[in-house]
Amino acid sequence: MRIQFLMGSQGIRGPSYRFIYGNTKEISSMREKSMGGPMELSHHIFPRLQPHLHSWFKLYGMIFLQWHGATAELVVTDPEFVKEILNNRERYYPKPEADVFTKKITGDGLLASKGEKWTKLRKLANHAFHAESLKSMIPAMIESAEVMLEGWKKYEGKEIEVHEEFRMLTSEVISRTAFGSSYLEGEDIFQMLRKLSLIAGRNDYNIRLPGISRIFKSSDDKESDKLEKHIRDSFLEIIRKRQKSMNEEGSNGMDFLGLLLKAGVDTQEISVEGIIDECKTFYAAGHGTTTLLLSWAILLLAINTDWQEKARQEVLKVLGCGRPNSEGISRLKLMGMIISETLRLYPPAVALTRKVQREVRLQNLILPANMNLNIPALALHHDSKIWGEDAHLFKPERFSEGVAKATNNRPSAYIPFGLGPRACVGSSFAIDEVKIVLAMILQRYAFTLSPNYIHSPIQVIAIRPKHGVQVALHAL
Ligand code: HEM
Question: What are the pLDDT digits (tens) for 259-295?
Fold first, then answer.
């Protein structure tokens, strides 16, 4: 009541708080209805994936108050507000506590940690992903793509479902580059992390009553406890193996795990538990997102064959039929525009959240402590006031002169990788990987949308193609 009154007195309205659940029941039922079946083949996906925001923007304006259980959540879409929140270095707006299931996926690794711990982890991660380290990861990306494409030979002239292919590919890439271990060693971990994220996804709008959920464990609680333990044990095994080979060979390897172990040994900056959390974070943050970017890019290129051909001509001009290299992929400008437009229309991270640490002034508003802030990236990316009336169309040319021009000088309206100090640490890694894989596909194949493809984007944490992405593959 106090928060509703306080925000109301500043002109901020929203759906009323309902006892225990806040607005989560309404949200779930609207989402169930809108995402129930397939949709026509268009990219106008915002009303389907976030029907509550779509209708509440109309009713209450572009900044409004909603309730996740008893937590007030201010939905903020003004690019100036977004810039101020995400760029804040005084830590007025930390990340909110993750829910119980998400915590099991990322632990207290870089994605979730705060304060000094985050500063230390971020330094380590920046070091692991700086330009020179990225260069050394390119051969592993190419090798994994080659293995995938070898398998595609049996689909020539036929249909292939690429989403599953990319899921295996990106897992292998992250396994090899971050942990030096083979895909097979990481396979089990991926399966378990995938199960955990499905559980987190289906509990996204479930409100947990603190006392009761500690006594009565749901089947999801029990299953996720088991998965968490197995994941921990598997990572421990990988870490022990590496420690052993480090002791025997005296080398820690150039990959992320090697770096973490070295930091642990040299400076005691990170414990084994900390290393496990970092491993989980990189597996979880680094592969689902990249899989989705690749899948949606292939869908868009299968529909827009003119752009597919332009991208192919660019690849052949810059790389010929040879292997991609770091200098070559940095010159794939059209491909960069296609990737930017894919991330605009189908951003894997649909929203960013922050918390108000203590009472603070944000632009013209006074926000009370402990309120959450919700920045809906998908809504910003589809806003016709920013992108024009053609906001729902695939038009990579809007990025030909960079993000500032594409957004009419409101670059904070385009946030597929976040913004500010907590922006994605793996963005260059992901873009390099996607450019390499797309280039290698375009060198070998043309593809068109299969008649069996069903356009049914759903949002379970990220935006996913419910029935996969099927294309017809034609060898060149
Ligand atoms: C297309 C691919 C990707 C997308 C769209 C993406 C998106 C994002 C976004 C939006 C954030 C910011 C979250 C926030 O501010 O609340 C983020 C953070 C992060 N991402 Fe990514 N990501 C991608 C790939 C990767 C990869 C490949 C890795 C690692 C290998 C990675 C690791 C991380 C980590 C560790 C953070 C947390 C950084 C911090 O809090 O300091 N991401 N990502």
Answer: 777 777 666 677 888 888 888 888 888 888 999 999 9
Provide the domain limits for residue 17: 2-475
Q: Please state the atom number of ligand 1 nearest to the C-alpha of residue 348.
A: 5
Nearest CA owner, ligand 1 atom 41: 422
| 346 C-beta closer than 6 A to ligand 1 | no
How many residues appear in the chain?
A: 476
Residue scoring higher pLDDT (190 or 157): 157
Q: What is the CATH number of the domain that holds 42?
A: 1.10.630.10
Q: How far is the CA of 231 from the centre of ligand 1 (A)?
A: 21
CA of 172 to the centre of ligand 1 (A): 18
Ligand 1 pocket test: which of 424, 425, 438, 461 has the largest number of ligand atoms within 8 Å of its C-beta?
424
Question: Residue 155 and residue 186: Cα distance in Å, rounded?
Answer: 26
283: nearest Cα among 383, 187, 153, 161: 187
Is it the case that residue 181 has pLDDT exceeding 60? no
**φ, ψ of residue 113 in degrees (nearest 5):** -70, 165
Q: Is 424 annotated as a binding residue?
A: yes
End-to-end Cα distance, the chain? 65
CB 416 less than 6 A from any atom of ligand 1? yes
Looking at residue 202, its pLDDT comes to 77
As a whole number, mean pLDDT of residues 115-139 equals 85
**What is the pLDDT at residue 274?**
85
**Is the Cα dihedral 341, 430, 353, 192 positive or negative?**
positive
Please give the distance, rounded to the nearest whole angstrom, from the Cα atom of residue 427 to the centre of ligand 1.
7
CA distance 341 to 334: 11
Domain count, the chain: 1
